[in-house]
Amino acid sequence: MENGFPKDFLWGGALAACQAEGAYNVDGKSLTIPDVMRFNPKLDRTITKQLKITQESIDAAKAELDDTYYPKRRGIDFYHTYKQDIALMAEMGFKVFRYSVAWARVFPGGDDAEPNELALRFYDDVIDTIISHGMVPLITISHFDMPIVLIEKFGGWYNRKLVDLYLKYCDVLFNRYKGKVQYWVTFNEINMSAKAGPKTLGILDTGQENYEEMIFQGLHHQFVAAARATELAHAIDPENKIGCMVAYFTTYAHTCKPEDALEMQNEDRMRNMFYLDVQAGGHYPYYANTYFKRRGITITMAADDLAIIAAHTADYVGMSYYMSMIASSDAENLELTSGNVTNVLKNPYLEGSEWGWQIDPVGLRYTLNHVFDRYQKPIFILENSIGAIDTLNEDGTVHDPYRIAYLESHIREMKRAVEDGVDVIGYTMWGPIDIVSSGTSEMSKRYGFIYVDQDDYGAGTKRRYRKDSFYWYKDLIATNGEKL
Q: Taking the complete model, does pTM exceed 0.85, yes or no?
């Protein structure tokens, strides 16, 4: 690919049901973790703070019927506006549109005998609308929307019972959308579990001594579920392409000090590579087993688990990329800045976003080469963008040169990675229409090409407006990135 992107490159965008749909109690849907995540307007943007989710906070949220402080309950009302919103994606020339299905809509009771037909009819129409506009649907099966009933009935993914419930859910989707959907993602950013166990695994931290062990046990169950889902998908339709996905935390050594290099290696392994070694490589790596031994972690496995994981690896590696960080063996005197889910050491060579996330386009090229060299599987960039505060002008325009600059610099480095020989098959920019933030539940943190007139408390006309970046991305797709 010495001349850039291939002609069939999949340009597009990505949304999540739990941040866009709203309609949290419509047509039989039950509550999810995002529905009980309270918005805290006093959050300091300069440092990452995750509000702790407990059974007490869940119970309090269930008792509060008003959605004012629970923004993901309303989202941007995509449940009712999807036709016009998808039409706007098509206007930009999207080749692919990534969306997620809400498990709590399809099986609102968690272990229902039959799926919720009203939910499936909604997703039927969403997928048909995507296809009608000439776009490829890419469906995420589980995207940070853990059903509360699966926590209260089974204790989340710590319970192996969820493997069978997940496969039942997958079986419904794979059969229902056979011939319509061929690109799938089993679990969104599966490596987020270390910092966001409740919304990824449904495992609540009650102060138990073995919480870390419970997290890795839940992850093992997800690894098995993903492998078995891959097997099932290929059996139902050999054309299905099943991807794993991580949020890649690209890490550099703070200095050329050997101890810093070792720290970088350790962080890369347990933040990123462990999850990909299992799902794309098909094995538990030696360094993870050493980590478990040193931490006193024991993972219970069925006799055939490792064989299943080895036999049914992902067809492609999916990843989100937003920022990078540094690692140091002596970090006490180094400055912290905000990052994706966690605070990170600040890199003096990089600028940061309004939320403190370090902007590193070259890191994307580095990471793509790093990952492809290790797994030799196609890579799909499933998320990439920048959260920013946008201003809607009186004439309905939104000028966002900062977003264009961020995306252009990252896509240019992605192109260079393709020219390096990395097999990148597609790019779905995160949040092409403004949605509620996953981490902070605020609307002010906007990613989109399309402005939604709605504030943090749900006030506004809800009208959609094309930003300057809308036209920039439309031109980028039309020229297949040749004008970068």
A: yes
